[in-house]
Amino acid sequence: MFEWTISKLDWYSWLFLAAQGSRLERFFYGETAMKLVKVWACLGVGLAFASSAMAQPAIFKEADIKLGEKLIAENKCVACHVSKVGGDGSAIYKPQGRINTAGYLRGMVEQCNSQLNLGLFPEEVTSVAAVLNRDHYKFK
E strand or H helix at 77, and its extent? Predict the structure, then answer.
């Protein structure tokens, strides 16, 4: 029987043993290794909780956030919003009672696309709306 602990292994050995499946018992035999397992388990639970807290609505599931951020910058959305509402332009994101679902949010981005003749494709409109949801609306 092997009595290994994490302290006797380097990082690559740990990864190799972790990938071995049924041979994991000999790896997790030591006390130090069990502490590491508990830390990794806590991190996993924390990451799962954090990812669920940042979950986007289904309408934004396939959205490309990086593309949305790029399109917002390229089309100077913030400058337009500043000219309409003043300040830093963020007041436009919370009109009283108008946008109360993710679908309405996407519709407002589509309206900007149409009115300003931006020529965005539907998936680009969805990406922009997903960024706005992440940064301002936080619909689940």
Answer: helix 77-85
CA distances from 129 to 10, 62, 67, 105 (A): 45, 12, 11, 6
Residue type, 13: S
**Cα 121 from Cα 126, distance rounded (Å):** 9
Q: How far is CA 89 from the centre of its chain?
A: 24
**Chain mean position to CA 117:** 29
- In tens, the pLDDT along 126-137 reads 999 999 999 988
The pLDDT value recorded for residue 95 is 67
Q: Say what the pTM is.
A: 0.60
Instruction: Find out whether 127 and 68 touch, Cβ atoms under 8 Å.
Output: yes
